[in-house]
Each structure stands twice: as C-alpha cells, then as structure tokens.
Amino acid sequence: MAETQAGPERREDRNGRRAAVDRRSGMDRRRGPGRRRGEVRRAAEEGEISGELLEFIMAIDEYKRINERPFPTWSEVFEIVQYLGYRRVAEQAAHINTASGSEVLDSADAAMAD
C-alpha cells in the first residue's frame, strides 16, 4: 500500500511551485496565450511591410469588417484606394504592360497560329 504524506497534500502546496518567467515580447504578451499573429501582422511587426502598404491593408481590412464583406469587388477596392488619396499622376509604366499585357498575349496567339 502507498503511504500517505504527512502534512498538507502536494496538490495544495502552492509555495513549492516554481515562478515562471515570461519570455514573450510586449506584442506577444498583449496578444494572450494561444493566439497567433496573422501573416500581415507578423510582417509589419518585423518591418517587412512599408508604411503605405500596411495602411492599404488596414484600410481593406477595415472596409471588410464594417461592410461585412469577406471579398470586396475591384470597384470597392478602387474606392478604398481613392479614399486613401491615391490619384494617377503619370502614365502607365512599361513593366506593367509587359508582365500581363498585350505583348504576352500577342506572342501566345502567334505561337498557337503556327
């Protein structure tokens, strides 16, 4: 048979418990236990996202939250961009057209015709 311990039970002995050291940073500590940072939040905290990009992402998230829309349309995204103050000030750059523009489509059409 097992012998009983004299004095208070071990379960009730709170003085023998080691003090835990919280090694989390300030942002992790505020988030609470078991909550992970989102990819955007992590990148922003680590300085991988510029201020303008973070402002844009936060504006999109706020729009989605307020309007209860998980996926805003392109028209709604355009409204958000205008709300942030962006206006066209120059002509379209050449690199935008070559990545997905008519040059790529023309060469694909020519290859299919052969």
Account of the 3D structure:
The chain is mostly helical and 114 residues long. The protein has six helices and no strands.
- On the 0 to 100 scale, the average pLDDT is 74
The tally of strands reads: 0
Task: Outline the biggest β-sheet.
Answer: none
Radius of gyration computed on alpha carbons: 28 Å
Overall structural class, as computed from helix and strand content, comes to mainly alpha
Proportion of strand residues: under 5%
Q: Give the low-confidence spans.
A: none
Number of helices: 6
The SSE string, one letter per element, is HHHHHH
Describe the secondary structure blueprint for this structure:
Elements: H1 26-31, H2 39-45, H3 51-67, H4 74-83, H5 94-100, H6 102-113
Helix pairs in contact: 5-6
Characterize this entry briefly:
The protein is mostly helical and 114 residues long. The chain has one domain.
Provide tags for this entry.
114 residues; mainly alpha; 6 helices; 52% helix; elongated
